[in-house]
TrEMBL record:
<protein>
    <recommendedName>
        <fullName>DUF7939 domain-containing protein</fullName>
    </recommendedName>
</protein>
<dbReference type="InterPro" id="IPR025738">
    <property type="entry name" value="BatD"/>
</dbReference>
<keyword id="KW-0812">Transmembrane</keyword>
<dbReference type="Pfam" id="PF25607">
    <property type="entry name" value="DUF7939"/>
</dbReference>
<keyword id="KW-0732">Signal</keyword>
<feature type="transmembrane region" description="Helical">
    <location>
        <begin position="431"/>
        <end position="451"/>
    </location>
</feature>
<keyword id="KW-0472">Membrane</keyword>
<dbReference type="Pfam" id="PF13584">
    <property type="entry name" value="BatD"/>
</dbReference>
<dbReference type="InterPro" id="IPR057699">
    <property type="entry name" value="DUF7939"/>
</dbReference>
<feature type="domain" description="DUF7939">
    <location>
        <begin position="475"/>
        <end position="561"/>
    </location>
</feature>
<feature type="signal peptide">
    <location>
        <begin position="1"/>
        <end position="33"/>
    </location>
</feature>
<keyword id="KW-1133">Transmembrane helix</keyword>
Length: 577
């Protein structure tokens, strides 16, 4: 009996210690569970400053945080990954750390989102970005920026000229400006690349980098020209001991432009009820395909009217009113809109062509052509006009009267001679009259068909030209994104943009990977560069020797080859560099 009691007590002790051991292991597991911690070295910074974001995983992890969402509010200047292990009496500890240098894109309270790595989630962090005014600039800084506008108050849809300047008295190895984007306005760059020139300021030579824009506000009220940031790097010698791999970003300057506030006025009462066309100047010009004094019935004459406006795009110019004159038939052609970019802004052009067919002989008056527009310089309504035109059309009656004989050509002594010749000239066989009418109708129908066919062909050509233009603009936009990703050494962004661009380069091919691009490029050097990019994307260790610009040059060779091929085939190149 005593032995039985001892055995029972032994089992109870064993169960107790076993439960205690399981509980200890469970608590230890919780303590050692994967954690993800995100922190910043400062949570209040100026718009010109940078800060460091550190993401640390306490447990060994194969995943990595998704930092793509940071690009909405921050510029990622660097991204370094490190890992280490430590062993002590308390046990072993493994850490993986991502350290990012970030620069804010705008003023305000910005949010660093939470990150998820292998199920571990970090806390979101708020960063307050303050404004640093440029109004105290003395003009003696090595590098500075300025923004100029030609007006402080304008009318809706009127052209506003914006000039952004980077002014430097030192050499720069890098200069990048954020795109100018304005809410409720159309922004048109006046040149493909910023202008660069040298100016003497206070007795010193300065490099000027100037970007010009034409802005067209679409709504009345307050228009804000936002502050944009110029990221510049002075050309200084790198310290090989403190920065052997060139990762030091401390010498990057972030220079914000001053924000501008513009008052946009509604259409004035005097201009209501007319086509609103605010311009600096508007002119009309016309040409004719033939003289207006000797037109013939059934034969067309072409009138071309060109409207040119300084400060308006081609699409802003209103159509001319339709003409309606009894005895004349009008066949308008598809209008052509275009614009030219100059230092003074946009110059829009609208060309309207119409074929006019007289249906009978006589004199016809085309009314005056009048276009009302708002003079932005003198703040008043003006009108551009073309005077009325007189068309003299020769008909069949004029031909008949010239063929009638006179009495002096006949023998006055013979009464029958006075009658017989007149009857012969004035009487026309019915079959000849019917044939003349048939041929006239047939000619008119043929003319209508030819004009209609010509109109359709021109419409198809214009549609194809517009499609090519849109395709070229889309390709150029994607190519600019590629260049931006390459300059930032953004490998994921470069791969994404490259696949999108390749679909424009080889539109008939199915492209899903960089291997597909390599096969279509058919260049050993391009294949190696794409393979290097793939290896970099799937590696956890950054490659400091990677040169994305080499890949960009190889891709640009493919673009040039395609342009040369299209030129040799007599086609307009799809895009330019």
């Amino acid at each position: 009996m005593a032995v039985k009691i001892m055995i029972t007590r032994a089992f109870k002790y064993l169960f107790f210690w076993r439960s205690l051991l399981i509980l200890t292991f469970f608590v230890s597991s919780i303590a050692n569970a994967a954690q993800l911690v995100a922190s910043v070295d400062r949570d209040t910074i100026g718009i010109q400053e940078t800060f460091t974001l550190t993401i640390s995983a306490d447990a060994k992890s194969n995943g990595q945080p998704d930092i793509a969402s940071l690009k909405n509010d921050f510029e990622i200047l660097s991204n370094n990954v490190s890992q280490f292990a430590s062993i002590s009496n308390a046990g072993s500890e493994f850490k993986k750390v991502w350290q990012l240098t970030l620069a804010p894109k705008r003023v305000g309270t910005l949010l660093i989102p939470s990150f998820n790595v292998d199920g571990a989630i970090s806390d979101a962090i708020e960063v307050r970005v303050t404004k640093q005014s440029q109004s105290q600039s003395t003009g003696d800084e090595d590098v500075r920026v300025s923004v100029e506008i030609d007006k402080t108050d304008i009318y809706v849809q009127e052209q506003l000229l914006v000039k952004i300047k980077l002014i430097s008295q030192v050499d720069l190895s890098r200069a990048e400006m954020q795109p100018l984007e304005i809410k409720d306005a159309v922004v048109v760059p006046l040149s493909d690349k910023p202008k660069q020139y040298v100016a003497n300021i206070n007795g010193k030579q300065h490099l000027i980098v100037e970007s010009d824009y034409a802005v067209f506000p679409q709504n009345s009220g307050q228009l804000i020209i936002p502050s944009v940031i110029y990221s510049v790097m002075p050309n200084t010698q790198r310290d090989l001991w403190s920065d052997p791999f060139g990762r030091n970003r401390a010498n990057i300057l972030r220079l914000p432009t001053e924000e501008k506030n513009i008052t946009v006025k509604a259409v004035p009462p005097i201009a209501q009820g007319t086509s609103w066309q605010p311009a600096n100047n508007l002119t009309l010009h016309e040409t004719w395909s033939a003289s207006l004094d000797h037109l013939k019935m059934g034969e067309p004459v072409t009138r071309t009217i060109t409207i040119s406006a300084d400060g308006l795009t081609g699409g802003q110019i209103a159509p001319l009113p339709a003409s309606n004159v009894d005895g004349l038939t009008f066949y308008p052609d598809q209008p052509q809109n275009s614009e030219a970019k100059t230092d003074k802004g946009i110059q829009g052009t609208r060309i309207e062509t119409v074929a006019i067919v007289p249906n009978r002989g006589g004199e016809f008056i085309l009314p005056e052509v009048r276009v009302d527009w708002w003079d932005s310089k003198n703040q008043t309504m003006r009108s551009a006009t073309l005077p009325a035109k007189i068309l003299n059309v020769l008909g069949s009656s004029a031909v008949q009267s010239s063929q009638e004989p006179t009495a002096t050509t006949l023998n006055t002594t013979d009464k029958n001679a006075l009658v017989t010749p007149k009857e012969v000239v004035t009487q026309t066989p019915s079959w000849l009259l019917g044939l003349s009418i048939f041929l006239a109708l047939l000619s008119l129908g043929l003319l209508v068909y030819v004009l209609s066919l010509r109109k359709r062909i021109k419409a198809l050509i214009n549609e194809q030209s517009e499609a090519n233009t849109q395709l070229s603009e889309k390709e150029k936009h994607i190519w600019d994104l590629l260049k931006h990703a390459a300059s930032n050494r953004d490998a994921p962004g470069l791969r994404k943009g490259l696949l999108s661009w390749a679909k424009f380069q080889w539109p008939k091919e199915s492209i899903h990977s960089l291997d597909d691009v390599a096969k279509l490029g058919a260049k050993p050097a391009l294949t190696q560069a794409l393979k290097k990019l793939d290896e970099l994307l799937y590696s956890n260790h950054p490659d400091d020797a990677w040169e994305p610009n080499e890949l960009l040059q190889l891709l640009n060779e493919c673009r040039k080859e395609k342009n040369l091929k299209q030129k040799s085939e007599g086609l307009k190149p799809l895009y330019n560099n």
